[in-house]
Design goal:
This protein has 76 residues and is mainly alpha-helical. It is 41% helix and 5% strand.
Length: 76
């Protein structure tokens, strides 16, 4: 579990972010594709993350789909 009061690094690579979140790299990519790169913008080949990014990604990883929330459809 990540704690916001304990910042060890300024930037994390994709592999480091996945390890910090205790998820696979493919799960990290799925979270990014579902929540950020979902309007036709391709995910860059390499990304770096800050501690705040890991907090949001951790939230998305733990959240379950809610039938009361309507997601915007992907744009072609």
């Amino acid at each position: 579990m990540l704690y916001a009061t304990r910042v060890e690094k300024e930037l994390y690579t994709e592999q480091e972010a996945a390890a910090a979140l205790e998820i696979s790299l493919s799960r990290l990519h799925a979270l990014l594709d579902a929540n950020i790169f979902n309007e036709g913008t391709p995910r860059p080949a390499s990304l770096t993350f800050r501690q705040a990014d890991l907090v949001v990604l951790g939230f998305w990883n733990r959240s379950t789909p809610n039938p009361k929330i309507v997601r915007m459809p992907r744009r072609p």
